[in-house]
Amino acid sequence: MFAKVGSCTLVGMEVVEVEVEINSSRGLPGIHMVGLPDAAVKESYRRIKAAVANSELPWCKQMLTINLAPADLRKEGSNFDLPIAVGILAVAGCFAPEALSGKVMVGELSLDGKVRGVKGALAIALWARKEGKGELILPWENLGEASLVKGLKVVGVSHLREVLEYLVEGKLPDQNRGSEAFELPPQKKLCLSQVKGQAMAKRALEVAAAGFHNLLMVGPPGSGKSMLAERLPTIMPPLSEEELLEVLCIHSVAGNLTPWRMLDSCPPFRAPHHTISSVGLAGGGKGFPRPGEVTLSHRGVLFLDELPEFRRDALEVLRQPMEAGVVTISRSLVSTTFPARFLMVAGMNPCPCGYLGDRKRPCTCHPSLVRKYYGKISGPLLDRIDIQVEVPRLTPTEMVEMPTGETSEEVRKRVELAREMQRKRYGSPNLYTAHVDISELREACRLGRREKEFMFTAAEKLGLTARGFDRCLRIARTVADLAGREEIRVSDLAEAVQYRGLDRLIFNAA
Prior knowledge:
Blueprint: E1 2-11, E2 14-25, E3 30-34, H1 39-42, H2 44-54, E4 63-69, H3 81-91, E5 103-105, E6 108-109, E7 115-116, H4 121-130, E8 135-139, H5 143-146, E9 153-157, H6 160-169, H7 199-211, E10 215-218, H8 225-230, H9 241-254, H10 259-263, E11 269-270, H11 278-282, E12 283-284, E13 290-291, H12 293-296, E14 301-305, H13 312-316, H14 319-324, E15 326-330, E16 335-339, E17 343-348, H15 367-375, H16 379-383, E18 387-390, H17 396-400, H18 408-426, H19 438-444, H20 449-462, H21 466-482, H22 490-498, H23 502-509
Parallel strand pairs: 3-4, 5-8, 8-9, 10-17, 10-18, 11-14, 14-17
Antiparallel strand pairs: 1-2, 2-4, 6-7, 12-13, 15-16
Helix pairs in contact: 2-3, 7-18, 7-21, 20-22, 21-22
């Protein structure tokens, strides 16, 4: 007897269709599995046999051949437990194999027959809808995220017997159980008005949020760098429905999609520890590549605190995704591309002890230590950081007084207006001034005579590179957008240039 069950596997962010074929034939009872299964797939038959027995269901007592097609694609993970078990039940005569037509199944089985959740359910549901599949049967644990995809019948199951009852009798399992788990829990309220002083740094955050410009903050310990970075998502517009679905799909593939994340349209904020490896940042790992921090922060903020403490090789992998908005991971068996359009915010001390140039405490670092400290940050990486701003020590008056300043909501309104101008100018909802093509930038940044003279002087005195000059124009364009103007003035260029001089001051001091 023969049965075919539709399933799929994840290759990076891509979902690839896999057909689980089961054939029973005369011979000694046993299982032969082919189709390049990895260790987790090979050992699945032990879980499946125990799950079928503990569910009090019949087992096929013939020789079983299981093929995972296409045969040239390596299969990994536990997604195939459920389709293999259902296929075996079909060839055992529990139901007609025709009942499996048009259905896609994924799920891991426990020894007692319960169906456990899998990674990438949202991506699988999007793929099933795109491919015109009739319905998707998956673990109840993944029903919430898969139900975000409209136009697809999704059935959540919690036990192998429920699948059999649905296929034989058409009895649909209860799909509303435990819906209270998807309520948004109370969260810490962050607001820009909670930050004392630091007017220039707050303005830099606003410009960064409006044009998606990368930002570096340099200052002594306790000056508020981390506090400012944490509040950057609060002044960014909420994710659109399309952007939110894209972000949720990434977190689903990574296996860290939580119910509150599905209900929260705030841009993601990721702050990896400085001991992270290059693989942890860019993605990769054994087998099929997995998304790294640059992908998990897609459409949001990647905060790198204590930037010089990160490994040099880890920082260098950021250069390509910062420019291209994607990261490509190549391995011997597969090559995959992940989205990585993130806003990088970095914080660092001015020296190892943290007090170089401080007004109150003297620096105790030897010049050679300071040079080594900055040597971990390459020139090309620093050149890709649009805005570089100093975050000085707070004065006693600022520390004693209550925090004052605009709220995140007030700043976010200006950011939204600036982004709306960019959408109309560039004709795309997800294209910002920091990422537009150079030809579009020149069209959007036409300078008058006085503006050209100013930029000529700035380039000559500050020694701007071609990329640095380009970044100044992009920042000036964003500053003008925040003011609601189409023309770029000298004042906009002056503000942009002041954000590009900190790197030279730091390295001269070192």
